User: Fold these one by one.
Assistant:
Number 1:
Amino acid sequence: MLTVLAVLLFVGASLGLVAWITFQSERERLKDDHYEHCAAQAGMMGAAAQELRQPLNAIVGLVSALQTTLRKAALDHDGVTEKLDTSLRELNEALLRTLEVFDLSQEADEFDFEPVDVRTELKALIRKRNKALLKAQSTVKIVAGYIPEIWVETELEQFQSCVGVMLDQALAQTKEGTVRVSFGAEEQADGMVRLAIAVKDNGRGMDQRRARTYFSPARYEDNPELRGAPAAMLSLNLAARSAQRLGGSMIAKSAVGVGTTFVFTVKARSCEALEDEPFNRVSPSSNDETPKFEELSVLLVDDNEINLFVLQEFIMPLGFGRVVTADGGQKAIDRASAEPFDLILMDLAMPEVDGLAAAARIRKGGPSESAPIIAVSGMPMLADDPQLREAGIDGFVPKPINNGDLLAAILKALPDIVRHAEERAETDHEVSAHPLRLAAG
């Protein structure tokens, strides 16, 4: 009897062990299938985002060119250019927010933390919007209470985005009067600092249940205030997501007849203040040998004809003496190997020879080997991506191209641009009396 019982127990244990092993194997298989599905979905969204950036970049550039043409020809009847500009900005903002959703879905938004002067950044954001309000002859104004000097390590672009979204939404709700900004900072025991930025409008407000739906895309119909404000819902949701990834949160508090207050909190590590860089470190020297801007040359590289046209439209007003185009990576290598350029703007996603390979080849030698190379691409990358550094690329501007982003990248590279031009001038004293403004490659 005991033998039979022992056999039954052994068989039962064996069956249980087999079932447990089978369950664990199936669990791991399902987990692998899930990861594989998520990876495929993220890849698809990444590809979709890049595909959207290309035509959007063309639309931005072509509309900008049309505006310039209409103004020069004095054909701006009934404020056509202003309407174009408004529609373009709204389309650009809405699509960019949509692309950010794609990027977030594949975790392409790794943050690069750096020392940030909170007071300076907040004042700059407020000043920028007050200037825009003044230009639009609005009676609304943003006012702020006392903001102490405080430095923390955080991701500057996401910090600016979170505060900017709150300011823009508060301004959208305020028809007259003031939008008030409050700031608070609390030191934590672990060397961290808890920051709180509140933005209050003087709109009509709403009940708190509706205020919570600001951060719920599925409940868009509960917020009629957001209709007619392109990308407002996406902006608020992305800002809340960014706040969470920065270690904080974003909420909205509201009451009927009182207005709405947006509160952005973030926990960051305190850091030492950075010394301001002397102006002469980022400016050309003032001696007579310094090349003039019109003596500098730039190479634009993209395999898409419309994108090349867009780049030309953005770059020509800067006054470069010579602007040359190359419609592909190999042609860029050939051009840069045959003649010197002081700056190269390089697309990355090109057939046959991509931008990374072309940049690496240019760095191996030739008259343009030390010229700054700035990547201009729809690929979701960070400016300090290892792939860019390994290829010898000095900067990154995402598509659709924002004029301010492109200008900032060029200004950052300006000392190296001038240095390259000075070195080139030492070996080549031939100066053209009539520099070529544009050449096709």
Note: Residues 277-290, 429-441 have pLDDT under 50 and may be disordered.
Number 2:
Amino acid sequence: MKRFLSSPKARCASDDGFKALVQMKQPRLIVMSGLPGAGKSTIADALARQLHLPVLSVDPAEAAMWRSGLQKAETGIAAYNVIEALAAENLKLGISVIIDAVNPVEAARDMWRQLADRNGVPLFFIEVRCSDQAIHKARIEARTRNIPGMSEVTWAQVQDRASAFEPWTGDRLLLDTARTGPDELLAKALNYLDVGPDTRSS
């Protein structure tokens, strides 16, 4: 996938990132959600660079399980549990974390809600969509993630996952990567993390 890359103008967002980082005195749990190819990893990576935070991604964890000999039927929930455990350890140290995962069902989202509650930290969901099917398909067909042991997802698989994607029942910031450029998307995400829950959209 050809990720949408920040232009040199994106460097001006660093002021917003620094401001948000200073105000993040309490650790936060930032959870990305969205279909493969929607652009959530791109936004997660951009946030991580701006705020100097770790990104914990489910896909590399699951691929590592496969390389270790575990059967694919056993690793879906297990990969989420591994990332949850790593996130918990960081939160205990007072370190905010960004979770990069599809999070397609309420059970997965509720796991992060419970983790935030147990650790007494604020939770921020960011759902990323690509509303233009042609653009989304082109990204899937062009992308190369190079995760050892994990093959690239097909457009048919993305469509299958879309049909099983459960509606949201809670607050989150919704970003559409088909209609908005990367600089503006990053600015929206930083603003959401900076000023708090009154900017959340449902």
Note: Residues 1-13, 195-202 have pLDDT under 50 and may be disordered.
